[in-house]
Write a structure and sequence with these properties.
75% helix
Length: 350
């Protein structure tokens, strides 16, 4: 029995030794992995999609602004491009969690916006890039801090800092990039933009003075003012109709003549009211420019910034609303979802 067991043990050892000495068959580990088993994580490609869309919108805005300054596109198209750029920039707060990655994307955005202004002075481009990066990154940090400190995701509170700083950055950049054109043409603001702003104020004025239409010609406005003033005069009411019209016409002509002397510019009856105000303000600003020289440049930038920033409040709320609707659509299509998590909060006790 003992000999039989020893023979069996020797036989097993020889079999194991032969298996160990025999070469292993060639194996291809790559073929063993099924092609459909390799997939990209949503955490990788979804933020990448928004990075790409934001960069493309920055490129489109830079192109549209250059086209606008060259007179090749309209103000409404420029505002649409700016709005799309702002929407994607606001949503980046929720999609890009790495600040260093976001700063890199901001660098690309600044480079693409300014790429269409390569012929400008280097100091203007550098100043524009620094302003854009400073305010945009400041807004990103503030919005992310709001998200991290809040127990719930409050959309409007989260996007308020980044949109406010984004609006400030873009207004300053647009003003700086407008400087070379202002130096060449000697205009403080393009006529198209001034007419847009003037048109917004016309509806507000008509609420208080319905008898005055500031969108009409200046001669018509002068006649309306003369008529409203003459109707309060009892002697005017006793005049025949033809005498009334003649008196109103003479009063309107006298009003335009006196106003032309005061403003220092010729006013014709067929001139629109916006043209009269535009020519007057432009002449005053150019007079200040010749008087104060280089010091006026800083003053002009500050004044234009304040004017545009006041209208930027309306732009901010409109973009916030559109961004919120887009945010809800992404949630409804399960492109992203909101999860709750428990957190500890540090307090100081005595």
């Amino acid at each position: 029995m003992w000999k039989t067991g020893a023979l069996l043990v020797r036989g097993k050892r020889s079999i194991i030794k032969k298996k160990m000495e025999s070469p292993l068959p060639p194996q291809n580990l790559i073929k063993q992995v099924r092609p459909d088993s390799v997939s990209l994580s949503p955490r990788f490609y979804k933020p990448l999609i928004f990075d790409a869309l934001t960069i493309i919108s920055a490129l489109a805005f830079g192109y549209l602004y250059r086209q606008y300054l060259d007179g090749l596109t309209g103000f409404s198209i420029l505002m649409a491009g700016l709005g799309i750029f702002a929407i994607f920039s606001a949503l980046q707060v929720f999609f890009t969690k790495n600040l260093s990655r976001r700063f890199f994307v901001l660098l690309l955005e600044a480079a693409l916006v300014l790429s269409f202004f390569y012929g400008y002075e280097l100091r203007l481009l550098i100043a524009s890039a620094i302003i854009f990066l400073f305010f945009s990154f400041w807004g990103e940090i503030s919005s992310r801090r709001e998200l991290e400190n809040g127990l719930e995701i409050k959309f409007f509170r989260a996007v308020k800092p980044v949109l406010a700083k984004f609006t400030t950055a873009l207004i300053l950049v647009m003003v700086i990039l407008y400087l070379p054109q202002w130096s060449e043409k000697g205009v403080f603001l393009s006529k198209d933009v001034f007419q847009k702003i003037f048109g917004l104020s016309s509806g507000f004025i008509r609420n208080f003075y319905p008898e005055i239409d500031i969108n009409s010609g200046f001669g018509k406005l002068a006649e309306n003012l003369a008529r409203s003033q003459a109707e309060g005069n009892p002697a005017f009411k006793e005049l025949p109709l033809d005498k009334k019209e003649l008196a109103i016409k003479q009063a309107a002509e006298s009003f335009m003549e006196n106003l032309s002397k005061q403003l220092g510019t010729e006013i014709r009856s067929g001139d629109s009211i916006s043209e009269v105000f535009y020519n007057y303000i432009n002449s005053v600003v150019n007079g200040w420019r010749e008087r104060f020289k280089d010091a006026f440049l800083a003053i002009w930038i500050f004044i234009v910034f304040l004017v545009l920033r006041s209208f930027g409040v309306v732009f901010y709320w409109l973009i916030s609303l559109v961004s919120f609707i887009f945010f809800q659509i992404l949630l409804s299509f399960n492109f992203m979802h909101i999860m709750g998590e428990s957190r500890t909060h540090e307090v100081i006790e005595f």
